[in-house]
Design a protein that fits this description.
By secondary structure, this protein is mostly helical. The protein has one domain. The chain has twelve helices and no strands. Helix 2 crosses helix 3 and helix 2 runs antiparallel to helix 5. It is globular.
């Protein structure tokens, strides 16, 4: 994997530019929405953000703060997937550099779009609009928190002076742990809704998490 690592280092301007865009967006959010950003960065330990802003934002993630963080999400997740491919995939994809990254960005964006549309459709069919809005709001903000946490590790992973992928592997492990925590917290936060509508919740969750991946795999393979 040293070869793949060296390939990236030879042409890393576009990744640096992506990190720069992410940091600029976070800096703007810190300037305009400082308190909100601080609250969302501690969401894994405190539900203060959800309690304060769930009603203020009308249970919606369609506002300037959320849209800006969504862009940060897409760019950060795409960088993580791209760098992870140096470990799990062949170096052929890595050699394409920016083209591969753009393809990943479009794929991640497509996944989130399909997942959102499927969720809206199911919530409309089964009259689960409140559950859908609540879950989407919480899932989105927990993911925002996760992204803010792994971003420093991701930067260190890319710019580490070592010739191995140990920092990147550590970042991947941290990401997986936080994703598991995210789902545990979602179930805990919505235990009443989950147990009162267990069948619909399982159907809804499976459709949100599995169906978009199946669709993407069918289109790409």
């Amino acid at each position: 994997m040293i070869e793949a690592h060296e390939i990236i280092k030879q042409d890393d301007n576009w990744i640096t530019f992506s990190f720069l865009i992410i940091l600029i967006l976070i800096a703007l959010l810190r300037f305009v929405y400082n308190e909100r950003l601080v609250n969302i960065s501690t969401l894994f330990f405190s539900k203060k953000y959800l309690l304060i802003y769930f009603n203020k934002e009308n249970n919606s993630v369609r506002n300037l703060f959320q849209i800006t963080l969504f862009i940060v999400q897409i760019l950060t997740i795409s960088i993580l997937i791209y760098l992870s491919s140096t470990i799990f995939l062949s170096s052929v994809l890595i050699e394409k550099g920016l083209k591969t990254y753009v393809f990943i960005v479009l794929g991640v964006l497509f996944y989130f779009s399909v997942r959102y549309l499927i969720g809206k459709f199911i919530s409309f069919i089964f009259n689960l609009n409140f559950l859908h809005n609540k879950l989407i709001y919480e899932k989105t903000n927990y993911l925002n928190n996760l992204i803010l946490w792994i971003l420093p590790f991701l930067v260190l992973s890319f710019y580490n002076p070592l010739s191995n992928n140990l920092p990147l592997k550590f970042t991947i492990i941290i990401t997986v742990i936080l994703l598991i925590m995210r789902y545990i917290l979602l179930v805990i936060n919505n235990k009443k809704l989950v147990f009162n509508s267990l069948f619909y919740f399982i159907l809804y969750l499976c459709a949100l998490e599995i169906a978009p991946l199946v669709i993407i795999l069918k289109l790409t393979i």
